[in-house]
Amino acid sequence: MEAAQAVSVEAAQAVRAGPRAPVVWPGAPMPLGARFRVGPDGVAGTNFALWAGGAEAVELCLFDEHGTETRCPLTELTHEIWHGFLPGIAPGQRYGYRVHGRWDPWTGARWNAAKLLLDPYARAVDGDFTLPPEVYGHLRDWPDQHV
Predict the structure, then answer these.
(1) What is the structure's pLDDT at 3?
(2) What is residue 22's predicted lDDT score, i.e. its pLDDT?
(3) What angle do CA 136, 139, 140 make, to 5 degrees?
(4) Of the four listed, 5, 23, 62, 103, which is most buried by Cβ atoms within 10 Å?
(5) Total domain count for the chain?
């Protein structure tokens, strides 16, 4: 088992023992990003939509005030956009994505679910931003190796 797979398995086991994942409804592929809305049925929540062409799976990761991660699989896929609607999720929710797929840097495939990704369509980012070596999906001297 590769190191990245081992980390992913350990993280998945830790998450399973954590809080129960909220219900995820199909949602809509547009607009991209996280958008709070009240549906025609009166249910308020947030629609999450992420373009990830070539990905095999996408997990929406929600974080509470203590930093505890809860993973919610986004199972709806429309034209390479993974999406879901989470009832009860309001503006200000901290979240990120883990994208699963092939690791083949020589062809440009660098999917690594061990990395938490920011939403490229986010309207704000909370916290400090630093660039330690762990931010990169590869060792700088050996681009075909996982960190």
Answers:
(1) 41
(2) 87
(3) 90
(4) 62
(5) 1
Q: How far apart are CA 93 and CA 115, in angstroms?
A: 19
Once rounded to an integer, what is the mean pLDDT over residues 73-90? 97
Q: What is the β-pairing status of strands 81-87 and 76-78?
A: antiparallel
Q: How far apart are CA 123 and CA 110, in angstroms?
A: 25
Q: Is the pLDDT of residue 119 over 90?
A: yes
Beta-carbon contacts of residue 71 (< 8 Å; ≥ 6 apart): 12, 15, 21, 59, 60, 61, 62, 98
Confidence band, pLDDT 50/70/90 cuts, at residue 144: low
Q: Indicate yes or no: pTM above 0.85.
A: no
Domain range for residue 130?
Answer: 3-135
DSSP SS3 for 73: strand
Assess contact for 27 and 84: CB atoms under 8 A: yes
Q: Tell me if 26 is assigned to some domain.
A: yes
Q: Is residue 142 domain-resident?
A: no
